[in-house]
Design a protein that fits this description.
Pfam family, one: CADH_Y-type_LIR
Function: Cadherins are calcium-dependent cell adhesion proteins. They preferentially interact with themselves in a homophilic manner in connecting cells; cadherins may thus contribute to the sorting of heterogeneous cell types.
Shape: flat
Number of strands: 37
Membrane topology: Single-pass type I membrane protein
Radius of gyration: 68 Å
CATH superfamily of one domain: Cadherins
InterPro entries: Cadherin, Cadherin-like_dom, Cadherin-like_sf, Cadherin_CS, Cadherin_Y-type_LIR, Catenin-bd_sf
Structural class: mainly beta
CATH class of one domain: Mainly Beta
Helix content: under 10%
GO molecular function: beta-catenin binding; cadherin binding; calcium ion binding
CATH topology of one domain: Immunoglobulin-like
Length: 717
Amino acid sequence: KLHSDLDKGVGSVKYTLSGDGAGTVFTIDETTGDIHAIRSLDREEKPFYTLRAQAVDVDTKKPLEPESEFIIKVQDINDNEPKFLDGPYVASVPEMSPVGAYVLQVKATDADDPTYGNSARVVYSILQGQPYFSIDPKTGVIRTALPNMDREVKEQYQVLIQAKDMGGQLGGLAGTTTVNITLTDVNDNPPRFPKSIFHLKVPETSHVGSAIGRIRAVDPDFGKNAEIEYNIVPGDGGNLFDITTDEYTQEGVIKLKKPLDFETKKAYTFKVEASNLHLDHRFHSVGPFKDTATVKINVLDMDEPPVFSKPMYTMEVYEDTPVGTIIGAVTAQDLDAGSSSVRYFMDWKNDVDSYFTIDATEGTIATNELLDRESTAQYNFSIIASKVSNPLLTSKVNVIINVLDVNEFPPEISVPYETSVCENAKPGQVIQTITAADKDLSPAGQRFSFKLSSEASNKPNFTVHDYRNNTAGIETRRNGYSRRQQELYFLPIVIEDSSYPVQSSTNTLTIRVCRCDSDGTIQSCNVEAIFLPVGLSTGALIAILLCIVILLVIVVLYVALRRQKKKDTLMTSKEDIRDNVIHYDDEGGGEEDTQAFDIGALRNPKVIEDNKIRRDIKPDTLRFTRHRPPAEDNTDIRDFINQRLQENDVDPSAPPYDSLATYAYEGNGSVAESLSSIDSLTTEADQDYDYLSDWGPRFKILADMFGEESYNPDKVT
């Protein structure tokens, strides 16, 4: 309820409400100031509301008091049950754990106000799962309640947990969740054989390395705790067998290490031990984690194929041995009780096997064709032996026949050499190392000797030095060689082998004379290089040609500059002494030409003050008004020129060179007046020169030259 001290109860005060929920959740009686809730409130949705109230005069609508703010808090009631937000739970605990072993902690959340009453006070209890597990009523920690729970007896447990508010009192709300607990395995059980003796029957024809039987020890544990290792206890017959563990079935697989023979021994007995790989020290007191069983193996008699006396036969024969020569024999026997005769035959696979034959009864091997070691040095084929009583029982053996060499080929130079010698070679210099090859045997099988032929021994050019390791060096015997005299040398070399009979051959080595530098590096071996100037290398010739080209370019540039300079000199006026000369290439128009130069500026200096355009450079296309200077404005030309000179000296835009302007102005007041012909009559005939006679004796000659001449017809011819 809101009330203002200014409210006298006569209805002159109006109460207004604003803020959170005003008009939607809360409303106010404008006359009495009573605040009412118009819908149900949920503390978990909004725990408090901030409102503002004000008392206003009904008539003037003006506030009687400043606006006041107040908070309405929602008081909690127990309307929410505890909830397990993370449930259902999954947990595990090792089997055989002691009482009180930690399993899992559960937590329930109550949305009610924990600060008001016991609405949010939760208590935990177990509804299902006793007596195996217990729970702390306050913390929700689940622990084991029974000792030595065995996984092999029961592995899975389902526990129902309840959380109740109001401290577990009557009337409180409750929530439940499920906890699935699994007992994990520990190695608490040793392996055990289900029986003490295992009987196996093995054919004597079983192959070495093959599995001949399986035995198994049982371990109720799981995973790595159930892994078993099998071992044969040393004793009678144990050295003929081996045992391994099948990692998928944990069975012991017995394998044969050596072949069995019924005629030699018919039965074997040995012991096998099974033990765990991963032991748990906590259970050593239970007893040894291993077990032992006896294995008896009976060898079964089988009809076996013949057995060769050797696992492989090696024979030798010389090449070119006559056909039909016996080179060896193979032998096979039937070891069974009723010994049977044996027959031999070739295992035909390819045409190579046709070089030999075998006697079916005796097993002797003879040549069937002439052999050539250079074609095939070794033959490898198989011989098959079968029992006469049972031809299906056969055995096979490999036969290797090595063909021995007969010395029939001479040695030769192994590869074609490209040998060269420098013109500046010194005596005793090795220019080539050569090797030899023999088709009879590899070079490692015999020794080769090298020497010059008899006709080459007398020539003082080259010699052969035998290194006695199947190689030889070609050495020079002269001090220098000349390509001009002889470009190629042909050196005959005699090569002999060490077999019997001795074979030899003469091989010709071609030696080319080349031009080299001082370090012995070959520069040229071409024939055309002989005709180059002696003492000049290719680089030197290129340098000389470049110098010649550069000199020609310099001469051409010099001549071009001379011609250009001469042309410029002819174009320049001899009387013009200025450094900067501008050529307009057109004829002046005299005093009437105002485009190139306004001479009126000299006669009227006042005009210059208004037009200060440079006169020493080519002017732009400007037209100046020609001024006729009045006679009374004449001024001293020298003062004017000095004034212009001073202005140009201090002008920063003036060129940095001297500029001389020549003004052809003769001044005013001359007695002779102007001598210009611009205003003269158009022809000489129209001019009157009689006044020259009046000027006195000084002008008599001019008066005679330009005076009027009398016409005399007699002088005409």
